[in-house]
Specification:
coiled coil
Length: about 240
């Protein structure tokens, strides 16, 4: 929509410029215009040609910039969606970590209570049977070993979760940096385009001023030609009268 509005504005300016830059039409019976007047029209015509060519190139660049900015906006939205997904993943990781931590603490507490009960049973049966004591001791040691294994597994899982969490945070920071870079690039493209538009408008105003000056000069030259013809006609009549006398 911005490209179409700018294009219509530039086309309106081009039509106004063409209307104001139409050269004066002379009859075939009038004398040839001075050479410097043709040079002025040639300069104006060349400037108008350069202006139209620059306008087309500017509109082409502007459309490319708008398309590129659309791609950058799409990439920015994709990065925002990825950031949202990563945030959800981080929350899930934290929730899983807390759940596993609570489960591990409950299991440790239960095993501790079981160990206390087993110690009491062991003390009660210590004097009754040496073989029973040996079996209870082996069972107790097996449970202690299993508890140590569970603790080691939980520590490894927590370490892996911390690594995953750090990687996720690093990725979020990288995505945020890329998003900021895209925003800076988008703003720079807009500023460059606005600067070039201001330059083209300045050139257009200069062409309008030059055209107005040229038209004024053409009017003066036209008046001088008419005055010269009148003087020539009067002088011719005088010479004819002198010849007749």
């Amino acid at each position: 929509m911005a490209a179409s509005s700018v294009m219509s504005e530039m086309e309106g300016l081009s039509l106004d410029l063409l209307c104001t830059s139409t050269p004066l039409e002379f009859e075939f019976s009038q004398p040839r215009r001075p050479r410097r007047t043709r040079n002025i029209f040639t300069v104006i015509r060349n400037k108008l040609h350069n202006f139209r060519h620059g306008k087309r190139r500017l509109m082409k660049d502007y459309v490319q910039v708008v398309e590129k900015n659309g791609e950058l906006v799409s990439e920015n939205q994709q990065l925002q969606r990825e950031n949202a997904e990563l945030k959800v993943t981080i929350v899930d990781y934290k929730r899983v970590t807390e759940t596993q931590k609570d489960t591990l603490e409950s299991k440790i507490y239960a095993l501790t209570e079981v160990s206390k009960i087993q110690e009491k049973i062991f003390e009660a049966t210590l004097l009754e049977s040496g073989s029973e004591f040996k079996r209870e001791k082996e069972k107790y040691e097996a449970e202690i070993s299993q508890l140590k294994d569970d603790v080691a597994d939980s520590q490894r899982l927590n370490s892996q979760l911390r690594i995953d969490l750090q990687e996720t945070e690093d990725r979020c920071e990288q995505n945020l940096y890329e998003k900021n870079q895209l925003e800076l690039k988008y703003k720079k493209n807009i500023q460059d385009l606005e600067e070039e538009l201001r330059t083209q408008r300045g050139q257009y105003n200069m062409l309008l001023t030059t055209n107005a000056l040229s038209q004024n000069e053409n009017c003066k030259l036209r008046e001088e030609i008419i005055e010269t013809r009148e003087r020539s006609f009067i002088e011719g009549q005088k010479h004819e009268r002198i010849i007749e006398d």
